Amino acid sequence: QVHLVESGGGLVQAGGSLRLSCAASGSISRLSDMGWYRQAPGKQRELVATESTGATNYAGSVKGRFTISRDNAKSTVYLQMNSLKPEDTAVYYCRINGITTWGPQFDYWGQGTQVTVSS
Fold first, then answer.
1. β-pairing verdict for 10-13 and 113-118
2. Spatial contact of 96 and 31, defined as CB atoms under 8 Å apart
3. What is the distance between the terminal CA atoms of the chain, rounded to a whole angstrom?
4. Residue 106 near residue 118 (C-beta atoms within 8 A)
5. pLDDT for 22-47, tens place per residue?
């Protein structure tokens, strides 16, 4: 099995920063794509940022403010969020896929972490 554990959410004032972490553990042979998504109340889940073999992709609304990075040795993906705005308030989910030690691919979501930005 593979487990994802997110951390780093919280309450911050507009203009502040937060760093989210998502650590994968379990029977992992290789990690492939990693990403962050978010879902605000009453809205659909949307892509925030993804990282795939060195290539990154960002939603237009966060480009220049958020940075996704990964540490393969720790099986962890990070999201550094700067210059936060109230509209960034949402539950943030990580998503990691890869290959298990026994062969099949996996594609899992984290449990979600709340980010609240006050004005």
1. parallel
2. yes
3. 41
4. no
5. 999 999 999 999 999 999 999 999 99
